[in-house]
Design goal:
The protein is mainly alpha-helical. The chain is about 60% helix and about 10% strand. The chain folds into 2 domains: about 45 residues; about 70 residues, 434 Repressor (Amino-terminal Domain) (Orthogonal Bundle), CATH 1.10.260.40. The chain is built from 7 helices and 2 strands, in the order E-E-H-H-H-H-H-H-H. It has a two-stranded antiparallel sheet with strand order 1-2.
């Protein structure tokens, strides 16, 4: 790489490089930024500050399925088991899963704790 140095008041002010070199350096910076972002996410995930949602759940939720039902099935729980853990009735859980009832913040929080997921994963 060859750069043209432009001085101002006897000091280097600008470096002019070829467009090809400029593109190369941009790619290096982007790669470094990507690597840093991955490392930061990994550290946060390992420390428990980030939460990952499996692709299967994302796909099915985007297709309109209940996130509570999806996480319940992912955790291998029946409606009765989840209802017992959350301290609610099975019919109430069923109504929340089908969208017939919304559930209170307290109820949804209990369900989220029972499923070991953040509350915002279960709500809009």
């Amino acid at each position: 790489m060859k750069a043209q140095i432009i001085e101002k008041n006897g000091r280097p002010e600008f470096a002019v490089i070829s467009y090809e070199d400029y593109q190369y350096f941009l790619e290096l910076l982007e790669d470094e930024a990507d690597a840093r972002a991955v490392a930061e996410f990994h550290e946060a995930y390992t420390a428990g500050r980030e939460f990952m949602v499996p692709e299967e759940i994302v796909r099915r939720e985007l297709a309109g399925e209940s996130p509570i039902k999806l996480w319940r099935e992912y955790r291998g729980l029946t409606q009765q088991e989840l209802a017992n853990r959350a301290g609610i009735s099975k019919p109430y859980l069923s109504q929340i899963e089908t969208g017939k009832r919304q559930g209170t913040v307290e109820t949804l929080s209990a369900i989220a704790r029972s499923l070991e997921v953040p509350l915002d994963v279960l709500t809009d």
